[in-house]
């Protein structure tokens, strides 16, 4: 049986992430349908990692095993003819039997882009984060470098995420600016759920000058603790950590978390307002996780 590795790229706007899911469309499911058509039988595809709903991939690796006889150089063309326009296979090669896209992966790179302009660009919709407030790029880049190295990144994972270890090695966290577009590239040996989003949100907050790079490791755990305290006090979570009867109110949560951190760190009112921007980014990340797990319901 052949072991074939694919290199592909995709726009994730129409998909609920890479992983196959029961009731919604995913990139992997779409790929497997195309492969089954090409190979003449069911195919199980293994990806190098999960991507969240709406996340794009510039270069993604996956592998599958099959007895199909199609020449390897024709696999991309045959498969692309059976895939939608937002997924493209760019290369295919036969690999050793021991190769596994996720198990053989030694590092990954995420790219997060911020369009820092008062006027949004319609052609960048679903591609970048639109952020109209002025950012101090030098401070933002300096804060990113504070994440480099081997650290316990429990502070920048979503609430409730389970993993064997939260220690990761970040090889680089580089930021560059070209006009209004800021690009942050983070390479590591692995990532926790929503880790990069929380890192970039922290960098944005640090750019205001109210947070030093060396303050980052201490502040984010406080934010997570305050959020957990709010959910218990509001009845969103019960004493055992399961979903309670109350709704999670974003405005109440932000106010609770900001007041808690402002008091603990003796922040003045202006600093507290800046902190709210980081808290808002954090809540966006944890909302996606909690909803995906069915732990809470959000009012529209």
What structural keywords apply?
300 residues; five-stranded mixed beta sheet; four-stranded antiparallel beta sheet; Alpha-Beta Plaits; 7 helices; alpha+beta; disordered C terminus
Notes on the structure:
The chain has helices at 27-39, 75-80, 137-145, 195-206, 216-234, 250-265, 269-292; strands at residues 2-10, 45-47, 57-66, 87-94, 108-115, 129-130, 149-152, 167-178, 181-188. Mean pLDDT is 82; it is low at 295-300. The chain is built from seven helices and nine strands. The protein is of the alpha+beta class and 300 residues long. 33% of the residues lie in helices and 21% in strands. A hairpin with a 2-residue loop joins strand 8 (167-178) and strand 9. The chain folds into two domains: 2-94, Alpha-Beta Plaits (2-Layer Sandwich), CATH 3.30.70.580; 108-292, Pseudouridine synthase I, catalytic domain, C-terminal subdomain (Alpha-Beta Plaits, 2-Layer Sandwich). Strands 6-5-9-8-7 form a five-stranded mixed β-sheet. Strands 2-3-1-4 form a four-stranded antiparallel β-sheet.
């Amino acid at each position: 049986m052949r072991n074939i590795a694919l290199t592909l790229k995709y726009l994730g706007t129409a998909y609920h992430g890479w992983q196959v899911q029961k009731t919604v469309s995913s990139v992997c499911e779409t790929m497997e349908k195309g492969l089954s058509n090409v190979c003449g039988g069911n195919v199980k595809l293994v990806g190098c990692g999960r991507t969240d709903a709406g996340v794009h991939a510039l270069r993604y690796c996956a592998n599958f095993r099959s007895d199909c006889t199609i020449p390897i150089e024709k696999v991309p063309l045959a498969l692309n003819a059976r895939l939608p326009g937002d997924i493209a296979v760019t290369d295919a090669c036969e690999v050793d039997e021991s190769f596994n896209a996720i198990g053989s992966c030694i590092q990954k790179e995420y790219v997060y882009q911020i369009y820092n302009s008062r006027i949004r660009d319609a052609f960048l919709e679903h591609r970048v984060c639109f952020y109209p407030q002025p950012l101090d790029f030098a401070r933002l880049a300096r804060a990113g470098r504070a994440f480099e190295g081997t650290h316990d990144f429990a502070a920048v994972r979503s609430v409730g995420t389970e993993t064997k270890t939260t220690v990761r090695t970040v090889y680089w966290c580089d930021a560059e600016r070209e006009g209004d577009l800021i690009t942050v590239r983070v390479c590591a040996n692995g990532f926790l759920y929503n880790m990069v989003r929380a890192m970039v949100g922290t960098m944005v907050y640090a750019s205001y000058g109210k947070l030093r790079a060396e303050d980052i490791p201490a502040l984010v755990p406080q934010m997570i603790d305050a959020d957990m305290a709010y959910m218990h006090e509001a009845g969103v979570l019960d004493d055992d950590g399961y979903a309670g009867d109350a709704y999670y109110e974003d405005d109440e949560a932000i106010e609770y978390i900001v007041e808690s951190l402002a008091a603990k760190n003796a922040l003045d009112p202006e600093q507290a307002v800046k902190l709210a921007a980081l808290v808002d980014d954090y809540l966006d990340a944890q909302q996606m996780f909690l909803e995906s797990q069915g732990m809470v319901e959000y009012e529209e």
